[in-house]
Fold this sequence. Notes:
Layout: H1 20-24, E1 50-51, E2 58-59, E3 64-67, E4 76-77, E5 82-83
Antiparallel strand pairs: 1-3, 2-5, 3-4
Amino acid sequence: xxxxxxxxxxxxxxxxxxxxxxxxxxxxxxxxxxxxxxxxxxxxxxxxxxxxxxxxxxxxxxxxxxxxxxxxxxxxxxxxxxxxxxxxxxxxxxx
Length: 95
């Protein structure tokens, strides 16, 4: 018979140093955009999105750049405004 592992309780939890003084005196700033963005059309375990833009198109932030394909798929939106340099397969650090 399988038994669930026994959970041990401990008081307090983990409290690493926060170093809030380091950031408390700095204001929040908008980081600059990188010179080039790669946007994967495969966002999860489901189907890839179908690209609806092509090289040379100008896109605005939030515009749909990939259309959902089938039931398990999602639309992909442009993270920022700019010009599409190309639509091609690229290695990404996730599936």
